[in-house]
Amino acid sequence: SQITTPMTLIERDQRKCAFLAEAIRICGFSHVTLLNSDVTNSQSRYHVIMARALASLDILLGFTEPMIMENSICLFPKGKSYANELHEAQGRWNFDYQLTPSLTQSDSTIISISNLKKK
What we know:
The chain has three helices and six strands, in the order βαββαβαββ. It has helices at about 15-25, 55-65, 80-90; strands at about 5-10, 30-35, 45-50, 70-80, 95-100, 110-119. The strands form two sheets. It has a four-stranded mixed β-sheet with strand order 3-4-6-5. Strands 1-2 form a two-stranded parallel sheet. Strand 5 (about 95-100) and strand 6 (about 110-119) form a beta hairpin. The longest helix has 14 residues, at about 15-25. The protein is globular.
C-alpha cells in the first residue's frame, strides 16, 4: 500500500529540487508538495519535521521552533558527534529526546525531539 499522508519537502538548492520534483512525478506522489525555498522562509507548521545534513542540532532547533505545533516531533539523523551536539543544544533549549541507533552507521543515531521550548 502507498503512503498518502500529505507531505511538504523544502529544498533551497535548485538542482536538488529538480531531482525531487522528478522523483515525486515518477512515483506518482500527488500528496507531496515541493517548495524550492530556504527552510527559514517557511510560514507553515508541521506535525513531523525531518532534516538531514543541514546544520548542528542547536541551529536545527532554531529553524524548527517556528514550525512546530503542540505534539510535533522532530527527527534528525546525526553522525558521530551527536552527543556533543545534544549537549550543546541542551544549553539553549528544553526538550525531550529519544536516541535510535543508526542501522547504517554504527557511531550515528537518529535524535527524536519533542516538547521543544527555548530556555
